[in-house]
């Protein structure tokens, strides 16, 4: 997605060779027009996959999930990082270790919202180590649902998340794949056109 | 909003005279078509207010904010409950006491995303005691921005949040106002038509 890559170059801040700040348009302040285009692009790719549910994790995946689910015409579910007071005890649960925060937390999804009848597309804003995504994939597995794939806005290809998903045979569709970055040289993208990005 | 009230009656679960579970369509599993309609309805009300930014709090306000901001054609910002690793130290901060969780947490917004030049619409899913909303209102105040109003999907009118906002002179637009509820008798709405709901 050319417009997204351009936005990353123009407004993303490379704080180190691992930390990219995109909170002016993606995950703190959000540009709804860009997110809508991202949603359309992701939905287009999965239009013929029989998706019944889009899933994500709170908080920064929620607007992405909304945009994709709107186009596909299906509900979305966001995994919770903290048990809600109104949540029932019938929960799918997975423990997740956050590398950035260096702490373990639990993702939960209420059982009525995910079943063996579902075909799921998981979306999120950024794929780095993929810890939270793998927790959500575990929940889809626990429910006996079919996982159609994982789609992210930005993939940091030099971190381990993409390889872990590849090794598990899970199709990944990333709209912008960053091969390398540094505060001095900025962001470099994986050399590929949009079509090649989805071929594995 | 008739369709919303109907949805609350049909799919909402009244767990006690204070706790309403709407997680099958509003704040865990989400129906994007309903949220889009909610966004259009809220945006319509504020179309001529010169809104430059929609604000909410993670996580369950994010899809509401996206839907409204999309129609108004402005960015939205979600207040964070936990400081992100990429967040700068230039933050607006307010402490919030959560009645449901019985704990205090901090809402933060990065300073570059809110300024004296902004006219803000604050949105959220549910107005109960209004603690988180008041934290966000404090942040809008700290930034010297103009607050056009607060709009929520569901207001539990029997809790203190609405009165606090009324007393502070802040216009509130709630799409469904619940006057009373119990597991035995279900949900009762404030008697008014949609037009009256916004008159204070």
From TrEMBL, chains A, B:
Q: What class of enzyme is it?
A: transferase
Biological or metabolic pathway of the protein: Purine metabolism; XMP biosynthesis via salvage pathway; XMP from xanthine: step 1/1
Going by the entry's taxonomy, the superkingdom of the source organism is recorded as Bacteria
What keywords appear on the UniProt entry? Cytoplasm, Glycosyltransferase, Membrane, Purine salvage, Transferase, Transmembrane, Transmembrane helix
Q: Where does xanthine bind?
A: 20, 27, 156
Localization, per the record, is: Cytoplasm
Residues in a coiled coil are none
What does this protein do, in the record's words?
Answer: Converts the preformed base xanthine, a product of nucleic acid breakdown, to xanthosine 5'-monophosphate (XMP), so it can be reused for RNA or DNA synthesis.
Q: What is this protein called?
A: Xanthine phosphoribosyltransferase
Q: Which organism is it from?
A: Alicyclobacillus fodiniaquatilis
